[in-house]
Design goal:
This protein has helices at 8-15, 37-54, 82-94, and strands spanning 22-23, 28-33, 59-62, 66-71. The protein is α+β, with helices and mostly antiparallel strands. A 4-stranded antiparallel beta sheet has the order 1-2-4-3. β1 and β2 form a beta hairpin. Bound molecules: ligand H2B. Ligand H2B binds at residues 55-57, 71, 73-75. The ligand C[C@H](O)[C@H](O)[C@H]1CNC2=NC(N)=NC(=O)C2=N1 binds next to loops. InterPro entries: PCD_sf, Pterin_deHydtase. Belongs to the pterin-4-alpha-carbinolamine dehydratase family. It catalyses: (4aS,6R)-4a-hydroxy-L-erythro-5,6,7,8-tetrahydrobiopterin = (6R)-L-erythro-6,7-dihydrobiopterin + H2O. This is Putative pterin-4-alpha-carbinolamine dehydratase. It holds the Pfam family Pterin_4a.
Length: 102
């Protein structure tokens, strides 16, 4: 099935179910924070595993106790699609397992 860019309204609607995620119109992003560096690093590895499963990859950054994701779909020219939202949902589901602060 072809991947289509979502309208800005659709993106905003879908983000209502993903608290903490924001959009600038061309991407969706979130930063998570943790008790320290190691849990943040473990979260990065877990996200990498999910991204490989989905075949869809965010710009993923590791700080001292933070993990940042920013993602759009390159194959449609850098717009937000359902693949980006699916990745965000998958990441949200594992965040509590790593002790991410709400
Ligand atoms: C062949 C491979 O699945 C594609 O190049 C994937 C890889 N990961 C990707 N990630 C993102 N964010 N957008 C893409 O279009 C994309 N394409």
């Amino acid at each position: 099935m072809a991947v289509e860019p979502l309208s800005q309204k659709d993106v905003e609607q879908r983000l209502q179910e993903l608290p903490g995620w924001t959009t600038d119109g061309d991407r969706i992003s979130r930063t998570y924070s943790f008790e320290g560096h190691f849990p943040a690093a473990a979260m990065v590895i877990h996200i990498a595993q999910i991204q490989e499963e989905l075949g869809h990859h965010s710009d993923l950054t590791l700080g001292y106790n933070t993990v940042g994701l920013s993602v759009n779909t390159h194959s449609v020219g850098g717009k937000v699609t359902g693949l980006d939202v699916e990745l965000a949902r998958r990441v949200e589901a594992i965040a509590p397992l790593h002790g991410a602060r709400p």
